[in-house]
Design a protein that fits this description.
Layout lengths: L3 H6 L4 E7 L6 H11 L3 E8 L5 H7 L3 E5 L5 H14 L4 E4 L11 H11 L3 E5 L11 H18 L11 E3 L1 H9 L7 H10 L4 E5 L14 H31 L1
Parallel strand pairs: 1-2, 1-4, 2-3, 5-7
Antiparallel strand pairs: 4-6, 5-6
Helix pairs in contact: 4-7, 6-9, 8-9
Length: about 250
């Protein structure tokens, strides 16, 4: 398969989950791109307790919107989308940020990669071909540390563990609907897949700078994030090892 018509001909149910917190500046443009470039997919905006007009703007654009009464953070918002996908029996669900960093035109390539690899999740990585926006120097250093850690812990090459551009098949949708990390969950979600013996793959994508709004990750939060995530994935690896030891002893 090589184009949108091919995807539509498969009669697949594809859901685009757009977690959005105070993204009024750019959400309409993101929705417009999605409707033009991925007409085969349904769009669901998770308005994560925004204090601006994110929800009304998204609803006026004609897509489904779930308004959370308070700000749950990215983990809670994304899991809400996966629960919706599971309840409505979608074949595939993809996360796309509401700030315009992700290109909807890459969704077809993510789908083709999933068809080819049979992976449970396909991640769009900005660091394979290193085109487009590459993040700040400090964040790239942090991402590099996490990439090395995850690659060693899982035995699978991980180049962009913090990428929020992720396509999931039914098994991953079912898992994430039941169980999903909070705070900054992208790295921990990879360990969760590994612990549950689900597979993931990466393909190159081009990302852009955010179209509007302000990132929720400050310099101080970045330090906290790194410390928390490193500790969390080490603990998750320990849980995986103990589970295998218990299975062997049984």
């Amino acid at each position: 398969m090589s184009n949108q018509a091919d995807i539509r001909n498969q009669s697949l149910k594809v859901l685009v989950i757009v977690p959005a917190y105070n993204e009024a500046e750019g959400i309409a443009q993101v929705i417009d791109q999605l409707r033009r470039e991925t007409p085969y997919a349904d769009v669901l905006v998770i308005n994560d307790g925004s204090s601006d007009a994110t929800g009304p703007i998204a609803r006026a654009a004609g897509v489904n919107v779930i308004d959370l009464t308070c700000n749950l953070g990215i983990g809670g918002a994304v899991q809400t989308g996966y629960r919706y996908a599971a309840e409505h029996h979608y074949d595939y669900a993809v996360q796309i940020d509401g700030d315009g960093q992700h290109s909807p035109s890459d969704l077809g390539r993510l789908l083709f990669a999933m068809f080819d690899t049979n992976a449970d999740m396909v991640i769009g990585s900005r660091f394979i071909t290193k085109e487009g926006f590459q993040s700040t120097f400090a964040r790239k250093m942090g991402i590099g540390v996490l990439s090395t850690l995850l690659t060693r812990l899982t035995g699978r090459t991980v180049t962009d563990p913090t990428s929020g551009y992720r396509l999931c098949g039914r098994r991953a949708i079912s898992l994430f609907a039941r169980e999903y990390p909070t705070d900054y969950p992208e790295v921990e979600a990879l360990m969760l897949l590994y612990n549950r013996e689900l597979s993931f793959a990466e393909i190159p994508v081009v990302m852009h700078e955010r179209q509007g709004g302000v990132s929720s990750i400050s310099a101080l939060k970045s330090v906290y994030y790194m410390s928390k995530v490193i500790l969390s994935v080490l603990l998750m690896k320990t849980m995986k090892r103990k589970a295998w030891e218990h299975r062997y002893e049984s």
